[in-house]
Amino acid sequence: MGEKKGTVIGEALTLAALVSYQDGTVASRTLIDKQVGTVTVFAFDEGQGLSEHTVPYDAFVQILDGEAEITIAGEPHHLSAGQMIIMPANKPHLLRAVKQFKMLLVMIRS
């Protein structure tokens, strides 16, 4: 896998296969972590989520598997595999697994 052990650089991979569901929790795997941004894959068990928070930059989310409810500034959005949404900077948002779901999160900090 990749140039360094455990990396994904230079490999053709299936995003949803990079992180596994774990009972009663949220699992994640960071693929890129740079000063300018991050790329992370998450797996949420049913009923799990992230509490309401804000970040100072836009965040791109693509649902890879399952179903999620993403609430932005009080407005809920129901997303399923293949759909995406951009959570705008400085707007409160939260995520909840309607069913188990996996997502790709891309945050660009500049």
TrEMBL record:
Cite the PANTHER family for this sequence. Answer: SLR8022 PROTEIN
Q: What is this protein called?
A: Cupin 2, conserved barrel domain protein
Q: Which domain of life is it from?
A: Bacteria
The UniProt transmembrane annotation reads: none
- Domain Cupin type-2 spans what residues? 42-107
Pfam families under this entry? Answer: Cupin_2
- InterPro entries, A to Z: Cupin_2 (IPR013096), RmlC-like_jellyroll (IPR014710), RmlC_Cupin_sf (IPR011051)
